[in-house]
Amino acid sequence: MTGTLDPVVLMKQEVGRAAANRVKSHSIVGLGTGSTTAYALQFIGDRLKQGDLTDVVGIPTSFQAEVLAREYGIPLTTLDAVDHIDVAIDGADEVDPQKNLIKGGGAAHTREKIVDALAQEFIVVVDASKLVDKLGSTFLLPVEVIPMARTPVMAALEKLGGKPTLRMGVKKAGPVVTDQGNLVIDVKFEAIDNPGELEKAINNIPGVLENGLFVGVTDRVLVGEIIDGKPVVREF
Ligand code: 5RP
After folding, report:
1. Is the CB of 36 under 6 A from ligand 1?
2. Is 190 a catalytic residue?
3. Burial 195-232 (b: 16+ CB within 10 A, else e)
4. Catalytic residue among 14, 112, 199, 210
5. Which of 35, 38, 93, 137 has its CA 20 to 30 A from that of 123?
6. pLDDT digits (tens, 9 = 90+) for 128-163
7. In what order do the strands lie in the sheet with 208-211?
8. pTM of the predicted structure, to 2 decimals
């Protein structure tokens, strides 16, 4: 993944590296999902190989994170085997000024919310295009739903003011199936004025497993930007 001159890739690498540098030895790390977090996992693996980090175990938030952790040599554990998570690193699809998020672009938000919310420090890694004034401005809100409940859940989401669509697979006939074997409904809301209330209202619909609103969970946001053609990381 190194050696490329694509500035967007360089920027994702730098923000991933900045997050990986915050991981301490003897810690339990939540391993997020997505293309930005993938670089953080790579750099954690590099630090372990160099001996700069020791005694780190990861808890993956998805099949993708598990595969990458194995590839980069990060030992894995489960929530059954630990009593806390020191730090979680994860991407986001939107970040508002209060550090609330929309996540789920990779259909992994259910496990991500479990792991990220448990972490003593939750670090979000994004590029500047993910910063919005109001959640829902650029990204649809993902909702994971048990397959047999998709029709009544879509009707209930419409009653809440949303426009729901079932997420379809790419290079796969039919819908996206999550790591839990469920479906994802992406919902357009014109404006999400109260993310905390909407998060609870959606999760209260029978058949919904989890939605992609992460409210009051984020501790730190690292933002990657290209300035004068060079990748720069700042804290939001
Ligand atoms: C997966 C996620 C990702 O973290 C989110 O989609 C951001 O991904 P990327 O870093 O590739 O833009 O929520 O469910």
Report:
1. yes
2. no
3. beebbebbeebebbbbbbbbbebbebbbbbbeeeeebe
4. 112
5. 137
6. 999 999 999 999 999 999 999 999 999 999 999 999
7. 163-166, 183-188, 141-145, 208-211
8. 0.96
